[in-house]
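Hello,

Our lab assistant flagged a job as stuck in the queue for most of the afternoon. It eventually completed. Since we weren't sure the result was trustworthy after the delay, we are filing this so someone can double-check. Below is the sequence as submitted and the structure that was eventually returned. Let us know if re-running is recommended.
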Amino acid sequence: MATTLTLESAELPPDAIEVGHIADAWGVKGWFKVVPYSANAEALFSAKRWYLQPSDRGAKSLSGTALLSIRQVKHHSDTVVAWAQGIDDRNAAEALRGAVIFVPRSSFPVTTEDEYYWVDLIGLDVINREGVALGQVRELLSTGPQTVLVLAYEQDGKAQERMIPFVSAFIDKVELPEKCITVDWQPDY
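-- returned structure --
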């Protein structure tokens, strides 16, 4: 039986960040499983309003952007589960399957000194102590014990990639306002 959702239409905030997607219903009371795009899903826990958009592979019950008022979010085993206003049974939760979740960057918890959200590092220029440009942060990888910056740069007209461990031994300074990271790294490493 198809469920018609009546979610509030909304406009995606200008500082919206894609943080995960809805995988499936969880239980019979309207809870649903969420797949966060970060190992630390604090943005999902801190935001009380999520913005949903349909994905290419699901959530056909959505069109445009919908606002979801979150009642509760919690860890369950190795996943995150949530419950929202207006989603009161399994059918309603299943209708959200595949929806992409955005939250405003302004609702992320405040970071401490020397702590950064990955999304804030993507696009930053990376230079070494000598001022040599090493590339721009394209993505970050979690390798278990550490995080690695993946830089994109060009050499002899060809796109290249460079990886630098994001650890204090190699990272001298992160300057978000200047959009720059200074590292102890040489171009030929």
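-- support follow-up --
The delay was a queue issue, not a problem with the job. The result is valid. The chain has two domains: 8-107, 118-183. The longest helix spans residues 90-95.
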